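Q: How do we represent a protein-ligand complex in a form that can be generated token by token?
A: Start from the inputs.
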Amino acid sequence: MTREILIWPEPLLKKISRPVARVDDSIRRLLDDMSETMYAADGVGLAAPQIGELHRCIVIDTSPRQEGQKLIHLVNPEIVRTEGATTYTEGCLSVPGEAEDVDRAAKVWVRALDYHGKPFELEGDGLLAIAVQHEFDHLQGTLFVDHISSLKRELIRRRMKKLKAERQSDSESPDEIRKAPSHRSAL
Ligand SMILES: [Zn+2]
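Then emit the structure tokens for the protein with zinc ion bound:
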């Protein structure tokens, strides 16, 4: 089921998500809703708090922009190692239409549980490494706007408040509401 993506600023997006005690059917349902929502929004990553669920769950699929990739589920992810540095122009499904340069590690190693609750390790570079760090931030209540200057952040905050007001008053065309422009690799 496609779920509504929360738009920043929104108090819930600033909260720290709870670890998942057990990967059961309800968590798998959540993961399914997350990937469906991510694909519907044309994003390459989504974290559970973005749909209002404070569980440590992430879905990533960078295959539209990165060769050899597929849908990845990460439950209770831990970034165990990072290497190098890179700057990437990031977008976020919770900050539609905006994109800013963010400094990140170039390569990451992650430990997590998969869709079936089995532990696994993932090594990522390129967009996948960016996506892992961006989505992990969401679980900590951090957004890419927290990595940029306060001046830029306040300008974006103003545009998001305007966008939210427009969406609220535009209740007659709900289909249009979902069509806010998004960055080519919104996360
Ligand atoms: Zn995001």
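The chain has four helices and seven strands. The longest strand covers residues 72-83.
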